[in-house]
Design brief:
With 366 residues, the protein is of the alpha+beta class. The chain is built from 8 helices and 15 strands. A hairpin with a 5-residue loop joins strand 4 and strand 5. Helix 4 (115-174) packs antiparallel against helix 5 (181-208) and helix 6 (223-238) packs parallel to helix 7 (260-277). The chain is elongated.
């Protein structure tokens, strides 16, 4: 529940208006009583003497939301009076409350007589709007955080369910009294593969939640010395899936600043995504390296079904799997984060039916 501190008191302005409203009509309200409703005429404004008043409005989800709670010495209802419009919110006594009511005509006469008071009111409106905006920015951020947590939970439950089920069946088979040695060996291999799969998904979750703004630990390396053994490792890993890794030209011997472990992960994510996208044997993934004036551009191209142009820019959003059967949906989002942490950028190109092309850059030098 909102507290009076949700909207800071009006300070000297509230004291001045309270003094001006001293000649107004005293009105008492029991807890829960409606003082005015949204849409009612703006016939005057109120100064709280004792108690508290909750201001609410119906927003986008058709649910009443608390805008603020005002307490003794503060005022409310003045906006509708000044702009000659219906009330934009509801006012309800949060507890037994006493107010002073000053009618619209009386307030306008005071403003005519005291221009300084009008300026102070404008400043107060601005202050209140800033406070209200900040409140809703905080609420939106919190809602987004909770939504992401929910998506994480759903991802973990959904994507871990299958490998855990496979592990359970394999373990059950291996533990049967009449299981043969080959059956147990096969079960052991199955369990090992599924554990690696779960580990990879956990690493994606950890990488995705790595706080932004941390100091990047980058080290100067010869790109050819980093890339050559990595390409051999990747080629060996994807060979059993009937996919070849091609390098038309050797990696250039240029100096770049990198985090070798994280940059390796970027390559593995892009290549494994390409392998997943190419059903059946005969797949080819080509790595190209293009030295530009200040960057090294790396291209990862496959001969799969390609990327529809309308989704190319959405591929790097979290949980955007776009038909991928397995995984967390965070792989390409992690790729973008790694590329940006290295001072580069990443993007996707391609047309449906003509293969997919992913490019990213690394700054030269260091």
């Amino acid at each position: 529940m909102s507290k009076p501190s949700d909207l800071p008191p009006a300070g000297h302005l509230g004291t001045e208006i309270a003094a001006l409203a001293a000649s107004g009509e005293r009105k008492s309200f029991k807890a829960g009583a409606v003082i005015f409703a949204a849409g009612a005429p703006g016939d005057g404004f109120y100064v709280v003497q004792s108690g508290a008043v909750r201001l609410t409005a119906v927003v986008g989800d058709n649910q009443p939301r608390v805008l603020a709670t005002v307490g003794p010495g503060d005022f409310f209802g003045e906006m509708a009076v000044l702009d000659d419009a219906p009330r934009s919110a509801n006012a309800e006594a949060e507890k037994d409350t006493v107010t002073l009511f000053l009618g619209r005509d009386a307030l306008l006469r005071l403003l005519d007589a005291r221009p300084r008071l009008a300026l102070d009111l404008i400043r107060e409106f601005s202050r209140r709007m800033r406070a209200l905006n900040q409140k809703y920015v905080d609420e939106i951020l919190q809602a987004e955080r909770l939504a992401v947590v929910g998506r994480f939970a759903g991802t973990i439950v959904h994507d871990f369910k299958n490998p855990l089920a496979v592990i359970g069946l394999a373990a059950e088979l291996a533990g049967m009294a009449d299981s043969t040695t080959p059956q147990r060996a096969k079960a052991e291999q199955t369990i090992s593969r599924q554990i690696k799969r779960i580990t990879a998904m956990l690493q994606e979750l950890i990488e995705f939640t790595r706080p932004s703004g941390q100091k990047k630990l980058l080290h100067s390396v010869n790109f050819a010395e980093f890339m050559t053994p990595l390409a051999d490792e990747i080629a060996t890993e994807i060979a059993p899936r009937q996919v070849k890794l091609l390098l038309p030209a050797a990696p250039p011997a240029l100096s770049v600043k990198i985090d070798a472990q994280r940059l390796s992960r970027l390559f593995y994510n892009l290549v494994n995504n390409a392998v997943d996208a190419m059903a059946g044997a005969g797949g080819k993934i080509t790595l190209r390296f293009v030295a530009e004036s200040a960057h090294l551009r790396i291209e990862v191209e496959d001969n799969g079904k390609g990327i529809a142009p309308e989704i190319a820019q959405k591929l790097f959003e979290p949980f955007a799997t776009h038909g991928k059967a397995n995984g967390t949906g965070l792989g390409l989002s992690i790729c973008r984060k790694i590329a940006e942490d290295h001072g580069g950028r990443i993007w996707a190109e391609g047309k449906r039916g003509r293969g997919a092309l992913f490019c990213f850059t690394l700054p030269l030098g260091g």
